Amino acid sequence: MSYSQETSLILDSPRGKDYTSANQPLYYSSTYHQEVLGGAADYDYARSGNPNRSLLEEKLANLEGGNHGFAFSSGIAAITAVFMTLKAGDHVILPDDVYGGTYRLTERIFRRFGIDFTTVDQTDLGAIARAVQPNTQLIYVETPSNPLFKVTDISGVSQIAKDNDVLLAVDNTFMTPLGQSPFKHGADIVIHSATKFLSGHSDLIAGAVIVNCPKLAEDIYLIQNGTGSGLGVYDAWTLTKNLKTLAVRFNQSVTNAEKVCRFLKQHPAVATVYYPADSDIHVKQAVNGGAVIGFRLADETQAQTFVDNVTLLLVSVSLGGVETILSHPATMSHAAIPELVRRQRGITQGLFRLSVGLENAEELILDLQQALETTINRQRNNKKKQYVSQCYTNQ
Ligand SMILES: *Cc1c(COP(=O)(O)O)cnc(C)c1O
Asked: What pLDDT, in 10s, does the model give residues 340-380?
């Protein structure tokens, strides 16, 4: 049948829907034709599910060794979905150095809905056990933590959770499913900011929740669909594509990070290096030390000088990209924490976080080396600056 121009503009030919392409096509459709009224078609409305998100969610579940994966519009949306499984009157135990966005979410939003949170130093299993109350429903763990790379014994917390009939959620963003498998150590819920290593190209914001228990999966799905926080089609497609290179990206980043870590540890301008592989507990529960390193300058007043002099590194928020990212927690990820609290926690001006990418490791080290030298040789540096400004004045 041939249609008018108006109708033809609306109708798509069936052609192009089912080629055997290497990559899944983008299903940019908010709604789907329903052949049987009230029937159970795979998809009806894209908020409730769509082929691009489904493929990604299956991949995420397999990667973590879980049964059900859910993709969200951000890591924070994923964490929100997990807290939304709770109700007013429930209590949650958090690490005292939890990711800043998670802290803001719990303190400023979920508290308003009557959910109570206690933060404890989760390197101390006894402190976690003592924080359990009759209304505790969830223990939330982030290991290694950020930015001081404190390590929590996942199996140890899992035992406390089981003894008290409490669920255990682990934010596994820093290690990726390739570096650490929380389910193997007794976690019930695994969370990722997929913005970081999973996507890996600093190109999108996404989050993931993976669970095994069908009841939990039902709850998380209700929230994903019911609050409309699922990941959009294009980002789901891009993340699926980017995941194909996760293993080569992560492994190479870790290899580079190990080299950079060795370099930083012997440099006189560096006072302390924080790397998870230095923790016995981390080594026991993870495959490697990951690709993110913390370090503290010997002269904490030289943070800006250091930043002024790096040339290869991207100085920014975030981590897990193909490019090496240098972050300054005190003014970036942890700026929202009052300065006194920050100082008590060791998040001072001289503390940096380095997410090591895929550049040539020797070149990364050379860049760090020359930038670190400038923090020692302040006087020479100042003289050079004066000279430069004189040149400009003379023009
Ligand atoms: C970035 C991050 C989050 C938040 O994820 P978004 O994708 O930025 O919403 C949560 N946890 C950790 C450990 C993170 O690094």
From this structure: 888 888 999 999 999 999 999 999 999 999 999 999 976 45
- Answer whether 220's CB lies under 8 Å from 69's CB: no
In terms of domains, do 189 and 253 share one? no
* pLDDT, tens digit, 9 for 90 and up, residues 63-114: 999 999 999 999 999 999 999 999 999 999 999 989 989 999 999 999 999 9
Whole-angstrom CA distances from 88 to 215, 226, 285 are: 19, 18, 34
Whether residue 11 lies inside any domain: the answer is no
Answer yes or no: is the C-beta of 188 below 6 A from any ligand 1 atom: no
**Does 182 sit behind a cis peptide bond, omega within 30 degrees of 0 on the bond before it?**
no
Identify residue 90 by its one-letter amino acid code. Answer: D
Do residues 228 and 266 both lie within one domain?
no
Q: Ligand 1 pocket check: which of 104, 152, 173, 235 to mutate, most ligand atoms within 8 Å of Cβ?
A: 173
Q: Based on the fold, state whether residues 206 and 111 are members of the same structural domain.
A: yes
CA 333 to chain centroid = 12
Report cis status (omega within 30 of 0) of the bond before 268.
Answer: no
- We report the CATH number of the domain holding residue 257 as 3.90.1150.10
